[in-house]
Write a structure and sequence with these properties.
The chain is an all-alpha fold. It has one domain (19-203, 235-444): Up-down Bundle (Growth Hormone, Chain: A), CATH 1.20.1250.20. It has helices at 17-43, 45-52, 56-65, 70-79, 86-100, 102-106, 110-124, 127-137, 145-173, 175-196, 237-241, 244-275, 279-284, 287-309, 315-335, 343-354, 358-368, 373-387, 389-404, 408-433, 436-450. Helix 1 (17-43) runs antiparallel to helix 10. The protein is globular.
Length: 470
């Protein structure tokens, strides 16, 4: 029995594997529903545009409005992620998703559409970074790649199931029932999580050393950046946010967010109005890009884990391979105007829309490796909030391009070309800049350089105090 005056802190025992994976499944359901709420407007785009008599620019602006408060909400919730019980944050967010659908059920007007989407975006902004932050807390660093990948492919699973179910609801019962269905499911998940969900455990996992990171001599070794220093020091946020790894991750996720938002808003109308599909067939065209996305994330995630376990520098899978994959998706987008209207078009659109999504998983893993656990929620929230600016610009830019093109087909082809150029640029930036091992070493060095020596005044032990030069 411990002595009553013993002040040694107790280290929490790590969570069981069963509990960790059960929570991962609940978080995957959360992310799948998150995508249902995003996708419902795009799946119902044609009947909504016809009923409300919306121009392409107005519809694009309504789609972009979903992301207006993403940045603010994700950063604010990220900052308080380590200060509040995350279980109840998830419950409140899911309930807000349900409430956000109500304006469209009460009054189908342009004003109601904007109110609903802006409110929904504010409630969904924190979802992805908070989910990743929570999933990371349930696993040690060397086992985080798979659960992180699963939380991201859950969005793809949500897109596939939404395309199948919500398209049927829209076709058979009208688009209002699609909004009602997403509200009911979001509220149901909130109830289940309130009963079965657990608060995330404290971050007690040490981060393994990276073989490529610079090391200090044993007597002056700095603590790993992935955990707080011994006396509670942290890395200044500006150094994390200005590191090449963060900026490269931001570039590729910005491109992926632009791509995803354009696909959500405009893919179904494209296949209805340009390719000539009926609404149910066009709704199913959301499925192939998400199959590509899920496959690419799983393959790259497995490859990343295997390479890093063998000692390969983390910049190779998280930067070079991921950046090349994002850029390949951009090349496919640029080629879309030349692929006709048949099988090759479906392949090109699927690769252009699906391949850039690998950026999300790799960016979260890369950024998570260079920041302390106590700052991870805020940093991931900042990453998510900043790259969501691509989601704001994408749908509206496509609408403006369509309205100023001589015809819809030309407008779509120009929009896809812009998307491709952005994806190629983002992928190249990631391949050149993302290097967690190097940047973790630099951040460790900055903390060590600014930390006072054991003497408490910044002097090396045994070194006499000197007077400042006059």
């Amino acid at each position: 029995m411990a002595h009553p005056h013993d002040k040694t802190p107790l280290v929490p025992s790590p969570p069981s594997r069963r509990q960790a994976w059960f929570m991962t499944v609940l978080l995957m359901l959360f992310m799948a529903l998150n995508f249902w709420d995003k996708a419902v407007l795009g799946l119902a785009a044609v009947p909504i545009m016809d009923e409300l008599n919306l121009s392409n620019s107005t519809y694009g602006l309504a789609s972009s409005s979903f992301y207006l408060l993403f940045t603010v909400a994700s950063i604010l919730v990220g900052l308080m992620a380590n200060k509040v019980r995350s279980k109840w944050v998830f419950v409140v967010l899911a309930l807000l998703w349900a409430v956000a659908q109500v304006p469209m059920l009460i009054s189908a007007t342009l004003t109601a559409l904007f109110v609903s989407r802006i409110f929904m975006g504010a409630a969904e902004g924190p979802a992805n970074p908070l989910t990743v932050h929570t999933a990371h807390a349930w696993f040690p660093p060397e086992r985080r790649s798979l659960p992180t990948a699963l939380t991201q492919i859950a969005s793809g699973i949500g897109a596939i199931t939404a395309a199948l179910f919500l398209t049927w609801v829209i076709t058979e019962h009208g688009w209002r029932w699609a909004f009602a269905a997403t509200a009911i499911l979001s509220a149901a998940w909130a109830v289940v999580y309130a009963i079965l969900g657990k608060d995330r455990p404290a971050d007690t996992h040490p981060t393994p050393a990276d073989p490529t990171a610079p090391t200090a001599p044993p007597a002056e070794a700095a603590p790993a950046v992935a955990g707080d220093t011994a006396d509670g020091q942290r890395v200044p946020y500006r150094r994390i946010l200005l590191s090449p790894t963060f900026l490269g991750s931001l570039a590729m996720t910005f491109a992926a967010a632009w791509c995803l938002a354009v696909v959500l808003a405009w893919l179904v109308p494209y296949f209805v109005r340009i390719v000539g599909y009926d609404p149910s067939e066009a709704g199913n065209m959301v499925i192939p890009p998400n199959v590509v996305s899920i496959t690419a994330i799983l393959v790259l995630g497995a490859l990343s884990g295997r390479l890093m376990s063998r000692g390969t520098a983390d910049r190779v899978p998280l930067g070079v391979f991921t950046g090349a994959t994002v850029a390949a998706g951009g090349v496919c987008a640029v080629l879309i105007p030349y692929l006709g209207t048949g099988f090759w078009l479906v392949c090109g659109v699927s690769l252009a829309a699906g391949l850039p999504m690998v950026a999300m998983t790799s960016a979260y893993n890369a950024v998570g490796r260079i920041c302390p656990p106590a700052q991870r929620g805020a940093v991931l929230g900042a990453l998510y909030g900043l790259y969501s600016l691509g989601s704001v610009g994408g749908p509206y830019a496509m609408g403006v391009i369509l309205d100023h093109a001589p015809d819809l087909a030309t407008g779509y082809h120009r929009g896809f070309t812009v998307l491709g150029v952005i994806a190629i640029a983002g992928g190249l930036c990631a391949a050149l800049c993302v290097n967690p091992g190097r940047d973790r070493g630099r951040l460790v060095g900055s903390v060590a350089a600014e930390s006072p020596a054991p003497g408490g005044d910044g002097r090396q032990p045994g070194r006499p105090r000197t007077s400042p030069a006059v």
